[in-house]
Amino acid sequence: QVQLVESGGGLSRPGGSLRLSCAASGFVFNIYTMGWYRQAPGKQRELVATMTPGGLTKYSDSLKGRFTISRDNAKNTVYLEMNDLEPEDTAVYYCNADRRGTRLDYWGQGIQVTVSS
Question: Which one of 63, 93, 95, 113 counts the least CB within 10 Å of its CB?
């Protein structure tokens, strides 16, 4: 059974930092592209960042270098370090596992991140 379990969300003041974690199980983690997406109220889900099995990363241009994705294949976990948070970062953040070239694509349940003073 595939599971992606996000943790580390919550409330931050503008300028603060949060670190999201996504613990994966039920599939071969190290051959999947792992990613983070987010969905703000009234908006479509959008890409935040992805990392391939080989470590290549892709980020949303809007992040301006504030977020960093990383993965620990030994722990089957992907992380998202979020710095200098802005109110516009408020959203539900979703972990994704994508086996490119196949239809294998899994999502976590999502975790709320709220940035507010």
Answer: 63
